[in-house]
Amino acid sequence: MDDRQLALSVVLVAMVFSVALELRVDDFRRVLTTPRGIVAGLIPQFLLLPVASWLVTLVLDLPADVEAAMLLVAACPGGSLSNVITHLGGGDTALSVSLSAVAGVAALVLTPFNFSWTVATNPATADWLRELAISPNEIASSLLVLLALPMAAGLALAQRAPALAARLRKPLSRTSLVALFAFIVIGLYRDRALLDLAILPLFAVVVGQNAAGLALGNLCARAFGLEARARRAVVIEAGMQNAGLALGIIALQFGGDVGMVVIASLWGIWHIVTGLGLATYWRRLDARSDL
Question: How many helices (H) and strands (E) does the chain have?
Fold first, then answer.
């Protein structure tokens, strides 16, 4: 793990902990009694977005490594950041956390499966097919450190010391959000050499794919008849893929191929922008409805 990954991990742990301070165990019990939201959130992640991305790569004439990166990102589950964005946007945070946990386990099988068949059945990427192996320990430890432990700690503090949790909630949430913005700005500065006109077509690809994920999540949530807060959780979970996991796989399996790294890195930045944008829009919508 390099310094940027470590810094982002610390920020995410702080943000998840601050989110957990506002949750109660009953929130998760309610989600488990209504599994419809879980199913609605898994379908766009592991079926609709991978298939849609595969169809697009069959039509577009892009370099094979770029198309392979698109297919890899589409095959990855949502990351823990989606829980924070869902919370900021007034969505169903308990559903989001449950979705992340279930998707992380499902990814052990579905991520290599989806990536393998989409790459193998695309003539431009067929030569890129690799025997993809994701270590169960890697995903399990990621879920434990970035999600389960800070979530459990926050829930325990809120349950045992509600007054202290109330005092910590706002300053911790604001501080971690500022740190997240700082991470984005520093990341853009460090990768400024990549930010020239030649990257615009790749950026357009990332924008379109991310928009497709968000739209498919919305369509699926509505098809399942979910209420507004649950729809927000599904939309964010479907549109915020785990770009960090994709970058790790690229480094291990593809020798850090530049084209693949650029796509995954742009995803890592852009989905934060769209996620925060949606969260801001939803909060303003809620504020107007309360008037």
Answer: 14, 0
Percent helix, strand, coil in the chain, to 5, is 85, 0, 15
Mean pLDDT, the chain, integer? 81
Q: What is the pLDDT, as a whole number, of residue 54?
A: 96
161-to-157, 166, 172, 201, 286 alpha-carbon distances in Å: 5, 9, 16, 51, 29
Is residue 78 helix, strand or coil?
Answer: strand
Specify whether the backbone of 256 is left (phi greater than 0), alpha (psi in -120 to 50) or beta.
Answer: left
- The dihedral through the CA atoms of 171, 173, 179, 181 has a sign that is negative
Condensed to tens digits (0 to 9), the pLDDT of residues 60-82 reads 888 888 999 999 899 888 877 88
Fold of the CATH domain 3-285: Na+/H+ antiporter like fold (1.20.1530)
Residue pLDDT, tens place only, 183-200: 666 666 666 666 666 678
CA dihedral sign, ordered 263, 69, 7, 14: positive
**Euclidean distance between CA atoms 272 and 280, whole angstroms:** 12
**Three-state SS at 241:** strand
Distance CA 19, CA 170 (A): 10
Distance CA 243, CA 61 (A): 23
Supply the pLDDT for residue 131: 47
- DSSP helix/strand/coil, 39: helix
pLDDT digits (tens, 9 = 90+) for 210-252: 999 999 999 999 999 999 999 999 999 999 988 877 776 776 6
d(CA 116, CA 119): 5
| Domain residue ranges in the chain | 3-285
**Measured between alpha carbons, how far is 220 from 62 in angstroms, rounded to an integer?**
29
